[in-house]
Amino acid sequence: MALVRIEGPILDSHQAVTDLEVFSEDPLVKAIVVRIDSPGGGVAPSQEIYNAVKRVREEHNKIIVASMGTVAASGGYYIAVASDRILANPGTLTGSIGVIMQVANFEELLEKIGVKSLVIKSGRYKDIGSPFRPMTEDDRHLMQTVMDDVHKQFIEAVATGRSLEVGDVEPLADGRVFTGQQAKDFLLVDDLGDLRDAIRLAGNLGGIKGEPPVIEPTRRFSFRDLISSYLFGELPSLAVQATWMPLMYLMVL
């Protein structure tokens, strides 16, 4: 039995994907619990981890159970729906099926301090989302089509993973959050339980008799990781805003 943790804002997929791939190739690992305690994050890394979970299940025939901690919302929930079963605590915050993009505008501030922005571009929309000019209606319409497409991808992933019709998911996909109990009522999770319950369930589904021994990926100590963890844990909004115009599967509070 292996345990893979996905904690904090999902800004990069490398570690989680690597952990899943390593355990998928280990013949002694019959099942994997993915412990999710995350408000979500970038669209692309969330999708990459989602795809990795699916590969482990479909190509390596490993049982994967998602265990939700304090929060497993937006991109965190996106990852969970790729698993065989999902367990949440009654008070877990989950759902938040939606996509968000936040764009700052500094035009008025620059005018006050006497700074002008000069842009040279080759392409009508090349500076779309620039913080140095207002967003036009054409800009907004174009970006809304992008957002709608990414939102549709999320809805379809939930419908597929939860064996639901797209029409059943759409009313729940307005960005709202649910408690674990509410999510169970809406069939977004399978059952209520904590991490220990998820480990036992994964063991049973994987054919492991008795209390399953649990292994986790080993980590080398790194000052860089320590500092990154501190910054992202204390200031997730700053970490998220570091990327220009990020498309986010993220629960915003």
Runs in which pLDDT lies below 50 for 5 or more consecutive residues are 234-243
**Major sheet attributes:** 7 strands, mixed
Q: What is the oligomer described by this structure? A: single chain
**What gross morphology would you assign?**
elongated
The proportion of residues in beta strands is 15-25%
Summed up, the helix count is 10
Mean pLDDT across every amino acid position: 89
| Rg of Cα set | 20 Å
Count of DSSP strands: 9
From the coordinates shown, what is the CATH architecture? Alpha-Beta Complex
- Please give the share of residues in helix: 40-55%
> Could you name the CATH class?
Alpha Beta
Descriptive report:
This protein starts with a strand and ends with a strand. Helices cover 42% and strands 17% of the residues. About 4% of the residues have low confidence. With 253 residues, the chain is of the alpha/beta class. It contains ten helices and nine strands. The strands form two sheets. Strands 1, 2, 4, 5, 6, 7 and 8 form a seven-stranded mixed beta sheet that branches. The chain has a two-stranded antiparallel ribbon with strand order 3-9. It has one domain: 2-enoyl-CoA Hydratase, Chain A, domain 1. Helix 1 packs parallel to helix 2.
